[in-house]
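Late entry, evening session. Most of the bench is empty. Finally got around to the prediction I had been postponing all week. Sequence below, unchanged from the version circulated by S.P.
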Amino acid sequence: MESAINLKKALDLRCIKFGKYIVKNMATVRATAKKFDISKSTVHKDVSVRLKKLDYELYEKVHKILEINKKERHIRGGIATRKKYKSMQKK
């Protein structure tokens, strides 16, 4: 029983850590996953489902940032593609 409680606390702390990182750095889910070496799915679930129940105020801040990221992702995708082909031309 004690290990289940410790696991729950660890999950809760992880959700809050991800949320704070996203807010502080205006980070994407992908960048957060890379920083903490964890899957994008886990980060997304933690900050969009679990965090909502733990710290609603932090959840709202994260949600706003993720909405901005979602609106800008097509731009970032274009930039990444341009960089890729420029680096290929240099080689």
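Two things to note before I forget:
The mean pLDDT is 88.
The chain has one domain: 2-90.
Will write this up properly tomorrow.
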